[in-house]
Amino acid sequence: MQFETENEFLNFLDGAKHNMRKDDLATRFLYHYRTEPEVYQMFEQFTLQLISKRPDRGSHWMIGNRMRWESTVNSSTERYKITNDYLGLYARLFMARHPQHNEYFQVKEMKRIIGL
To answer: What is the count of structural domains for the chain?
Structure first.
């Protein structure tokens, strides 16, 4: 499923979450995205850098691992913890925010979020 805007994607996740389950992936991701926006900012920064070098396709797994590397090795202040569960959601969020790159990441159906 492709989204035209960031709000469309976030509204979809908001509707997909199971409010009674705190371990629900959509609920956990939305909480993480809203409380730690710098993690997405880093994802977006590294993705735009990758697009400038490799404009046809990219790997959200590579971006996630670079984030881990940069925050562990090259940062003296902060270590970002990002679960693999969020990488596909960050990729979808990036493509929703940047519709000109809406097929940059190859994403698979997410069985844990119905309709995604």
So the answer is: 1
